[in-house]
Amino acid sequence: MLADKMKLTAKDILEKEFKPAMRGYKPEEVDQFLDLIIKDYETLHQEIEELQQENLRMKKQVEDSSKRQPAPSTAGTTNFDILKRLSNLEKHVFGSKLYD
């Protein structure tokens, strides 16, 4: 899974400590940026989980639908029978107007 391949977690980013140095970055700015990264990681992780669940659900749905038997066919019905039914339907719907 993708979560297993990721090297950092939101917790790792949150707990990372940087040593102050001369002429270093402002710690407040670094913390604010890391907070944004943490939120993105959490959102990414949540999206991955949702997509994995949806993927499993859809695989199960495909598996279930493939196990179902196909709908019974209209065995014994010929083209002549279909044309006869169509003709009767046209006569019923259009009546005598059909032949005028």
TrEMBL record:
Region entry Disordered, spans: 55-79
Primary localization: cytoplasm
GO cellular component, one term: cytoplasm
Keyword presence, Transport: no
Keyword flag Isomerase: no
Any one GO biological process: regulation of cell shape
Assembly, per entry: Forms polymers through the coiled coil domains. Interacts with PBP1, MreC and EzrA.
NCBIfam families: DivI1A_domain, PRK14127.1
Function: Divisome component that associates with the complex late in its assembly, after the Z-ring is formed, and is dependent on DivIC and PBP2B for its recruitment to the divisome. Together with EzrA, is a key component of the system that regulates PBP1 localization during cell cycle progression. Its main role could be the removal of PBP1 from the cell pole after pole maturation is completed. Also contributes to the recruitment of PBP1 to the division complex. Not essential for septum formation.
Protein name: Cell cycle protein GpsB
Organism: Niallia nealsonii
